[in-house]
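user: Please supply your own:

assistant:
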Amino acid sequence: MAISSLSSAQSVTSVAWQQIQQQQAQRNADQAEQAARSLQAQARSAQSVANRAQENARSISVEANQADSRANQAQRGLVSLKSIGEIQSGFDELRQQISTVLSKDFAASEPAQPVPVVNTSGQQTGTLISVTA
């Protein structure tokens, strides 16, 4: 009987050992599943952050393009103003030259003589006639 008791004891020990191993395997599986769920949540969170960062990058890119456009427009305006200033300077110079030429011409010319006008009778008018006869 001692052999059958020993066999029974080994059988009970074996079953208990299997149960312990099974429980340990279940705990390991539960922990792995929990870790997987946690990692999936972290991945979703990271993906959400990445999506927001990408959207922010798009927005910044649009703003940069708009700023570049405004800078180009300002540069064109500056070039236009410079050209207008040069044209204005040229006009001022031309006015000064015309004024100088005209003042010299008027100063050097003789006083204007009246031009005789012929009336309907064919007589010249506007001339001086001596009436002392």
The chain has a mean pLDDT of 86. DSSP finds one helix and two strands in the chain.
